[in-house]
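Figure 3 (text version): structure tokens given as input.
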């Protein structure tokens, strides 16, 4: 979303006769001076936040705390279903964690992967996905938890595990942006992203959120 601002600063020419009707609407008053053939306007007409009409919705899913798993595990997937007619632009991923016991032997990070052929696991209801505006349609994007199957492609981020010998929590939320100068990381129909660890510990607890837009 971009902020659109219309400004009239300085001199606005009127007609050759010295008369001109100028309609100005502003959330705040500002002076307009008739200089006999021109108007001096000092102020901002208006400032409005607008949404690119190409976007059909913006969404975020934030799940309950998920226990760690010793073996490789797909904790979360976001999928753009085949035939959706949409493109998903990932805004970012948000990760925090706590441990409830000794995890000193765990070194594998939580990684983000591009993927295809996601299936199984637990498909989350559309009602669990937050809309950035309540009037937006339900998302095309599908969230799955519970170790769904996936064919992994390239990885696109790493988030280190919390390591310790006692109960503790991460001092930060790892925010993973997914936009570069060329644009946002995009999922076409049939494509997914997967949040996965190759190994873990049952004393880990993951808190995961993901945000995206659709057009």
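Below: residues designed for each position.
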């Amino acid at each position: 979303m971009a902020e659109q601002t219309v400004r009239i600063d300085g001199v606005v020419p009127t007609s050759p006769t010295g008369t001109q009707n100028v309609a100005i609407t502003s959330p705040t008053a500002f002076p307009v001076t008739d200089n006999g053939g021109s108007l001096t306007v000092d102020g901002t007409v208006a400032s409005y936040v607008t949404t690119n009409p190409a976007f059909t919705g913006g969404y975020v899913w934030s799940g309950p705390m998920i226990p760690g798993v010793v073996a490789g595990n797909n904790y979360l997937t976001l999928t753009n279903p085949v035939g959706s007619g949409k493109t998903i632009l990932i805004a970012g991923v948000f990760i925090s964690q706590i441990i409830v016991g000794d995890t000193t032997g765990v070194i594998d990070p939580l990684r983000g992967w591009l993927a295809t052929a996601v299936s199984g696991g637990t498909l989350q209801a559309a009602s669990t996905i937050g809309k950035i505006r309540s009037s937006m349609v339900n998302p095309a994007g599908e969230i799955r938890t519970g170790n769904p199957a996936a064919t992994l492609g390239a990885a696109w981020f790493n988030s280190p595990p919390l390591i310790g010998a006692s109960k503790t929590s991460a001092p930060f939320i790892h925010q993973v942006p997914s936009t570069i100068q060329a644009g946002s990381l995009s999922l076409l129909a049939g494509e997914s992203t997967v949040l996965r660890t190759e190994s873990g510990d049952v004393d880990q607890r993951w808190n995961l959120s993901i945000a995206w837009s659709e057009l």
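Residues 57-214 form one domain.
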